[in-house]
Amino acid sequence: MVTPRREALPTVSFIDHYCQAYQKLFSDVRNYEAFKLTHLGMLSEIPRKSLPKIARAVGLKDSQGLNYFLKEAHWDVEKVREIRLWLTKLLIGEKEITLCIDETGDAKKRCDPAPS
Q1: Long-range residue pairs from 98-101, CB within 8 A, at least 24 positions apart, any chain
Q2: Most buried one in 10, 36, 71, 106, CB count within 10 A?
Q3: DSSP helix/strand/coil, 93
Q4: What is the torsional sign of CA 12, 6, 34, 19?
């Protein structure tokens, strides 16, 4: 793990705070910035989460940097998973939870309360 040569540009505070746990996994600060911007784009309100749309939503001129990050950059996905699991366990503690995973991609019905 190499320390970055400069500080990463900030995004929004909760993204920066969350991603800080992963910073040491990225030897190139540009890859760390792409990691943060990808998170920011995935949490944005854009309806389709394609790289070009994420790039526009986070203020990039094109999606090439994000594409390079996902396709070519050197980072350890297993280490990212380990940190994500550690953070999840840290936040949950000993509480019981129910985890529901839906990977069908089907549109979900909204469960709005009945009008009164």
Answers
A1: none
A2: 36
A3: coil
A4: negative
Which residue is associated with the tokens 């526009």? Answer: 56
10-residue mean pLDDT profile of the chain (116 residues): values are 71 94 93 96 92 96 95 93 94 87 70 61
81, amino acid identity: R
How many residues are present in the chain?
A: 116
Q: What is the pLDDT of residue 115?
A: 62
Q: What is the DSSP string of 45-73?
A: S-SS--HHHHHHHTT-S-SHHHHHHHHT-
For Cα atoms 95, 81, 69, give the angle at the middle one, nearest 5 degrees: 140
Structure tokens at 35: 């990691």
- Pair 22, 39: CB distance under 8 Å: no
CA distance 38 to 54: 7
How far is C-alpha 111 from the chain's CA centre?
27
